[in-house]
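Per your request, structure below.
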């Protein structure tokens, strides 16, 4: 009787453990499916926040081209130094254009009243932009500016029409012009095709990598803990596999006595 009770307890434990493993696998597959669904509407950014070199390049690009208008107030310079494997002095020299200290948050130097006058609204903080709109949206937004004389600022964007900012990366990408195709039946407007009318300093492939690096950096900024979670996740899965194997051996040993 005691042996039967012990065997039953072990079986219930194994079933519970199997359910936990199944939940983890289903969640992982669901996440992968969600990302695939996001990429159906526009080209995938294919960012990798574990690529520290990409994050370093993205940080340099962000601070050179974006930080003059946009803050990332939930990020500190000290956290950047730690996660991007840079020395504090290097971070302050390369990124802190406002005279900030290593423990300060990353804030734009643009006065709110001036930005309201120049752009019609204060440029938003980008700390959570990647979490709100997704990496694919940011990546394609950076690649989709074109000259539009009908707007107040002379620029427009196919991903975010009537965006109230010019293309900050036009020197790298070049200047794009839009070609509007005639609308098909049932469509409100025709398809817009973008073509480079004035070349920039980078080729199309190089600029795609530039946009990808900035997107990777903003993705990291939106969730810095993802770096640690990704590295820990591998060990967690390995532990689950090892524990499942040991539990199977234990179950096998107990069932030898039952038989």
């Amino acid at each position: 009787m005691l042996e039967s009770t012990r065997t039953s307890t072990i079986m219930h434990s194994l079933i519970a453990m199997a359910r936990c493993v199944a939940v983890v696998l289903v969640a992982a597959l669901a996440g992968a499916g969600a990302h695939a669904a996001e990429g159906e509407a526009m080209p995938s950014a294919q960012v990798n926040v574990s690529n520290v070199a990409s994050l370093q390049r993205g940080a340099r690009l962000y601070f050179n081209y974006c930080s003059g208008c946009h803050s990332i107030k939930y990020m500190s310079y000290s956290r950047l130094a730690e996660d991007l494997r840079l020395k504090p002095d290097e971070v302050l020299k390369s990124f802190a254009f406002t005279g900030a200290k290593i423990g300060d948050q990353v804030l734009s130097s643009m006065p709110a009243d001036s930005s309201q006058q120049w752009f019609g609204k204060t440029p938003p903080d980008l700390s959570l932009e990647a979490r709100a709109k997704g990496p694919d949206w940011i990546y394609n937004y950076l690649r989709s500016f074109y000259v539009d004389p009908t707007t107040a600022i002379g620029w427009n964007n196919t991903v975010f029409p009537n965006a109230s900012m010019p293309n900050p990366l036009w020197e790298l990408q070049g200047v794009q012009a839009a070609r509007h195709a005639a609308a098909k039946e049932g469509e409100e407007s025709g398809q817009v095709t973008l073509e480079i009318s004035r070349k920039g300093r980078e080729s199309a492939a190089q600029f795609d990598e530039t946009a990808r690096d900035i997107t990777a950096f903003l993705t990291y900024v939106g969730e810095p803990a993802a770096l640690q979670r990704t590295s820990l996740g591998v060990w967690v899965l390995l532990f689950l596999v090892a524990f499942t194997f040991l539990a199977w051996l234990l179950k096998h040993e107990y069932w030898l006595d039952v038989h």
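The first strand starts at residue 72 and ends at 76.

Regards,
D.
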